[in-house]
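Q:
My hope is that you can spare some time for a protein that puzzles me. I hope you can help me see how the letters and the tokens relate. Thank you; the sequence and its tokens follow:
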Amino acid sequence: MGDSGLEEDLIFHLKIAEYSKNSVLKSLISLITMDIINLTRKYDTCRDGRFRAALQEHDSVLEGICRREPEKAAEAMAEHMRMVRLERDALGGAP
């Protein structure tokens, strides 16, 4: 994945935090952004189709938000985070 895709992924998460009006979440995302960039580059986390899967997961989150179904959006984000953790674990448990 190029830096453009990584940048778009981070912007997606930052916008979700911003629109949630949750200042703690926004601060947390902002704090860990550099770590996400470094780990993504180091472990090439979007290889083997993971990037496309992440886009589909993002679509599910956005669909819940657009439909004003917070439970659906939350479930979709939880699934996205679960998949990210699985990918991390498959890479040897990177933090």
